Amino acid sequence: MVEQQSSLDPIFKALADPARRTILAQLSDGPASIGDLAAPLDMSFAGTSKHVGILVSAQLVQKEKVGRRQVCSLNPKPLAEIRDWLDRYAVFWTARLDELEAAVSRYDDE
Amino acid sequence: MMMNSETLSEAKGRLVFRRHLPSPPKTVWRFLVEDKKRGEWLCRGLVEPHAGGRIEFKFDPEEFGQFRPPDKSPTAYTAEFEGQVVTYDPDHKLAFTWPSAGDLEDSLITITLTPNGDGTNLELIHERVVRESDLIGSAAGWHTHLELLECRLSRQMAPNFFTRHDELEAEYEARLKALRSERET
């Protein structure tokens, strides 16, 4: 449990920034260079590279060098870890929703 | 003795920094091109000693030692990219490109060293900076980095790099706003 939380820490930290979430959203459409990622962010090349660096260290993004360009792509594995983490709470919500459904149908019957 | 100065011209996308440094050009040059020395005030990386060569920018705040942000994880600021050497004239002039966002042309940085007494006059021109946010970011960035170089050469304690950088960024943003309203009236 503790171990899993520590592996989620860098992922949630990386996601706790709107610019980095924008970068991830852009990469969900396919690989892009740092320059491409910087363009809609109104952020400098150096600033964007720093954000990409944080996403790379959280393993959400991988970087590949093509000549002088660095091409970034999405790594879905940590996102799957987050989904697994949320799924545990889905059990809880589903149970609550089942109760709600039962309560509503009882109300309808009355 | 030359006075330190900074000039921003938004219309031309140009920044000019002038600094008087306490060391001779020969020493300052080593801080421009030698991996470890360059890392103490700007970033580490290889500088190929000829026009057309590669210049690496490897930013890692760990290099700034006590100047790194106290509350951030050390990996939070690492960044790595590269440009191209345009002029390599030892002890005198170093020019190189810096990548830009999107399809914009790379910006150009020219650093010229001129001896002045026991020290050096350094002039840094950053041009082809098209976007306003880049102009502000570059101005604050160079200002903070040059301050670190001055402190390093005069063996003085520098302020925390990142606190100082954020302060200067706000200052340059205000300066640019003032420039613009001056032009409009």
From TrEMBL, chain A:
InterPro entries: ArsR-like_HTH (IPR011991), HTH_ArsR_DNA-bd_dom (IPR001845), WH-like_DNA-bd_sf (IPR036388), WH_DNA-bd_sf (IPR036390). PROSITE patterns: HTH_ARSR_2. CDD domains: HTH_ARSR (cd00090). It comes from the Bacteria. This is Transcriptional regulator. Residues 1-94 form the HTH arsR-type domain. It holds the Pfam family HTH_20.
Automatic annotation (TrEMBL), chain B:
It comes from the Bacteria. Residues 24-150 form the Activator of Hsp90 ATPase homologue 1/2-like C-terminal domain. It holds the Pfam family AHSA1. Belongs to the AHA1 family. This is Activator of Hsp90 ATPase homologue 1/2-like C-terminal domain-containing protein. It comes from Algimonas ampicilliniresistens.
